[in-house]
Specification:
This protein has 90 residues and is mostly helical. 84% of the residues lie in helices and 0% in strands.
Length: 90
């Protein structure tokens, strides 16, 4: 097919003009779709990173809670056994 870009629009017949519009529409769609896919990849990557960060934070909070609970339990038992030892003396 001949290159229609060099022909003035007013000299084109309707079929060639339609073909030019179709090609232009396809080109614009490819540009838009490429941008959309890029944005979608970035969004999904960001979403994955946020989920990973939240999961790491959740694990960190859980580990800290578990450690502090164990420390509190040990402290409680220490005082409890100290109390029992004091009571046995009487």
């Amino acid at each position: 097919m001949a290159n229609l870009d060099d022909i003035p629009v007013d000299k084109l017949d309707s079929e060639h003009y339609r073909q030019m519009l179709v090609r232009d529409g396809e080109r614009r769609f490819r540009e838009w779709h490429g941008e959309f896919l890029r944005y979608q990849r970035e969004f999904l990557k960001d979403q994955h990173n946020r989920i990973r960060d939240l999961e790491n934070q959740r694990k960190s909070i859980y580990a800290d809670h578990k450690r502090r609970s164990q420390e509190s339990r040990q402290e409680y038992l220490r005082y409890y056994y100290k109390y029992l030892a004091e009571m046995r003396r009487y």
